[in-house]
Write a structure and sequence with these properties.
The chain is built from eleven helices and 13 strands. It is of the alpha/beta class. The protein folds into two domains: about 5-235, 4-Layer Sandwich (Metallo-beta-lactamase, Chain A); about 240-314, no CATH class. Strands 1-2-3-4-5-6-7 form a seven-stranded mixed β-sheet. The longest helix is centred in the C-terminal third of the chain and has 20 residues, at about 235-255. It binds zinc ion.
Amino acid sequence: METIATLDHGITRIDAGYVRPALDAFYLVVENGRAAFIDTGTSLAAPRALEALRQLGLTPDDVDYVMPTHVHLDHGGGAGALMAACPGARLVVHPRGAGHLVDPTRLIAGSREVYGASEMARLFGDIVPVAAERVIESADGMEIELAGRPLRLLHTEGHALHHYCVWDAASRGIFSGDTFGISYRELDSARGAFIFATTTPTQLDPAAWLATVDRLMALGPESVYLAHFGRVGDLERLADDLRTDLHSVRDLALAHAGAEDPRTAIRADLATHFLDRLAAHGVGMPREELLEFLEMDLDLNSQGLAVWLARQAR
Ligand SMILES: [Zn+2]
């Protein structure tokens, strides 16, 4: 899959190069020569963002907005680096995430806990702070105008409390960050795309997420632009699959309430759950290969479910 792919409606998909190809995307939207990035990838993806501009005959001065859907580092970690490169841009970020991008100290510490210190620099590079006066805090329903093209922000809880999605009426598309789950192209089968919930730490809320899926689908979208990975259609089915998955993984976690080591137990069940679903979907990759391919997601998703489960007990 190309690193920089031109879609339609002035939308370009950029592979952030995080971990492996086709894992983490962000998007460039261009209207009348003005540009907005939706998500940023990590700091290490900034050169790719600038290359995408160059390929479209644009410069960093043409960027009006940098719009991380949320401040998880594979989505918003590169915001500071990109803002430094695009002097006229404003950063549009959820009020619960804004402080973390202005002063990333806690973000870095939190991610170090999830990923481990040794992986931090290799995966994410340096997290660059953003000057507070360049920040626009999002509000639910707020419209950002990109050269007259409205980009509507929807505060969407479920995956994270600092998450917004972007409704782009021009493409009838939703830029969903992590809120419409993950669908890797390697897992496409004759049945189409395979989708699963992104239950990473630490603010997972399955009930809120189910309501969010309904709210997004009520817009009547034709496309969803996923961070992981790329544009998908067939949205009624995918929304149903995502709802079913959310119910399943919530129940799977609840079954280990009171267990001595819920995270390990949840991970084992989650692996079985994935393999069962993938087999039913007709994905041909051998079992060992699938477990290796999904290793990071199994680690993070089981961790997020365990954190959610611990919160239920309080
Ligand atoms: Zn996320």
